[in-house]
Design a protein that fits this description.
Blueprint (H helix, E strand, L loop, with lengths): L2 H19 L2 H33 L4 E3 L4 E3 L8 H13 L2 H14 L7 E3 H19 L2 H14 L13 E3 L5 E2 L2 E2 L1 H5 L2 H11 L3 H15 L10 E3 L5 E3 L1 E2 L6 H14 L2 H18 E4 L2 E4 L1 E3 L5 E3 L1 E3 L4 H8 L3 H16 L7 E3 L4 E4 L7 H13 L2 H17 L1 E2 L2 E2 L1 E4 L4 E3 L5 H14 L10 E3 L5 E3 L3
Antiparallel strand pairs: 1-2, 3-4, 4-5, 6-7, 7-8, 9-12, 10-11, 12-13, 14-15, 15-16, 17-18, 19-20, 21-22
Helix pairs in contact: 2-16, 3-4, 3-5, 3-16, 5-6, 5-8, 6-8, 8-9, 10-11, 10-12, 12-13, 12-14, 13-14, 14-15, 14-16
Bound molecules: 1-deoxymannojirimycin.
């Protein structure tokens, strides 16, 4: 080959690599990735939705492998369609929205003579309906939410004002005096929105009274214990942690402040956060974690961390503490990558699995997404792709998506929690969604990832 041609070819190569290094091509690659992954996430969501339609239409949830569905209680409360609706709005799934809407308005009826767990019904159903109303504008969502909210109100009729765990939707009979901070405090956002949207302050006031009563009973460390009697205010279990049973109590103090601007919530959040960081955080040799401690002495009781605890990174981000959030996310991704999907619980001192399932929980993806949103550091975008891909790969069956019994063998479990639609797929999608589809700064997401608009 002629020398001039070779030199020309080399110059072209140099110019191309220079522009690559200047960052143009990576931007293009990210845009292409975003478009392609948005389609892939929607495809997973749609396959799971199709599975619900085929095997469980009108029921609470599907069992895709057995090709059937099941209800949580004696009759269906349409858990999956209600929980899925806000994600359908964000994904722009017009046909699926329409079919879910028809089902909800034809069949959803809360006049049911059975007891429900107010926590789950609040975050999935009440939160889902209120968010659907805000996203869609159809007043029938608000009417259903108001009916449900009224039916659950008797839970607050305890001597302390802290809510009971269970309530009969028809008779209003409340029961379940042994509760925990998460189930006591995680109604604040939903009932606060109900107050805002109906103009009736009573919903928020009742919830806040319960939260303030519980906060007054915090331990000497400033932390909450695991179980309390809502009739006497006596702690039954004094172990403090940020895991299931306590987690969203703290989450709602911060989010309640952001949504409603109530300074009491801000104060309670700030003191709780400082105690959490002082007594529960653990700079171990394996990474940065949050463990368990006695609520009075602050003495470490357990060195366990699990899928549920991962939510705290997102809360740290919302609070502006990106440094701790980034350290925690590093540990979270390490836990996820031990086997390719995160185990439910590990002992973080030796990274051994304590509980091996992966029930399609969203919290690891949630924290990574918040970090991506607030830092725009491409490592979080890449992590988002990776987290999604592992679900796409391991949770897929011929008939839809399911949970994993043991992440070490990837043996499947024939269930699919409705938060797969509400949260897991939503957080995956948000990494790749077009800007006009969603703006995190304009909303506060309830603990089930249903967006509530910040402005009145
Ligand atoms: C969801 O129902 C909510 O995120 C709740 O706060 C915790 N558990 C599940 C998801 O893991």
């Amino acid at each position: 080959m002629n020398k001039n041609i070779i030199s020309f070819f080399l110059i072209v190569c140099l110019v191309m690599s220079a522009s690559l290094l200047a960052g143009q091509a990576p931007d293009d690659k990210m845009a292409a990735d975003k478009a392609a992954y948005a389609v892939r996430v929607r495809t997973v969501f749609l396959k799971a939705w199709q599975s619900y339609k085929t095997y469980a239409w009108g029921m609470d949830a599907a069992n895709p492998i057995a090709k059937k569905g099941h209800n949580w209680y004696a009759q269906s409360l349409l858990m999956t369609p209600v929980d899925a609706y806000s994600t359908m709005c964000i994904m722009g799934l017009a046909k699926e929205k329409e079919e879910a809407k028809q089902l909800i308005f034809e069949k959803l009826d809360f006049n049911k003579d059975f007891e429900v767990q107010q926590f789950e019904i609040t975050i999935r159903m009440l939160g889902g309906l209120l968010s659907s109303y805000q996203l869609d504008g159809d007043k029938r969502f608000l009417d259903l939410a108001t009916d449900l909210g009224n039916r659950m109100l008797p839970v607050f009729n305890s001597p302390t004002g802290m809510p009971y765990r269970m309530v009969n939707l028809k008779t209003g009979k409340a029961s379940g005096k042994l509760s925990n901070p998460a189930e006591i405090g995680t109604m604040l956002l939903e009932y606060g929105m109900l107050s805002r949207l109906t103009g009736n302050p009573a919903y928020y006031q009742k919830c806040k009274k319960g939260v303030v009563a519980l906060y007054a009973l915090r331990g000497k460390t400033g932390l909450m214990g695991s179980q309390i009697d809502v009739e006497t205010g006596e702690w039954v279990d004094r172990q403090a942690h940020i895991s299931g049973g306590i987690d969203s109590f703290y989450e709602y103090l911060l989010k309640g402040w952001l949504l409603f601007g109530d300074p009491d919530l801000k104060r309670m959040w700030e003191t709780s956060r400082d105690s959490i960081n002082k007594f529960l955080s653990d700079d171990a040799s394996t990474g940065f974690w949050y463990g368990w401690a006695d609520m009075n002495s602050g003495k470490r009781t357990l060195t366990e961390f699990g899928a549920l605890d991962c939510f705290f990174g997102a809360v740290l981000c919302l609070d502006g503490d990106l440094v701790r959030a980034a350290k925690l996310d590093k540990s979270i991704l390490k836990m996820w990558n031990l086997y390719g999907l995160e185990p439910e619980v590990i002992n973080y001192t030796n990274m051994k699995v304590v509980s091996p399932s992966y029930i399609v929980r969203p919290e690891a993806i949630e924290t990574t997404y918040y970090l991506w949103h607030y830092t725009k550091d491409p490592q979080y975008f890449e992590a988002g792709k990776h987290l999604f891909e592992s679900i796409e790969k391991y949770c897929q069956t011929d008939n839809g998506y399911v949970e994993i019994k043991d992440v070490r063998s990837m043996e499947k479990k024939d269930e699919l929690e409705s938060f797969f639609f509400a949260e897991t797929m939503k957080y995956c999608y948000l990494f790749f969604a077009p800007d006009e589809a969603f703006n995190l700064d304009k909303v506060v997401l309830n603990t089930e990832a249903h967006p509530f608009f910040r402005e009145k």
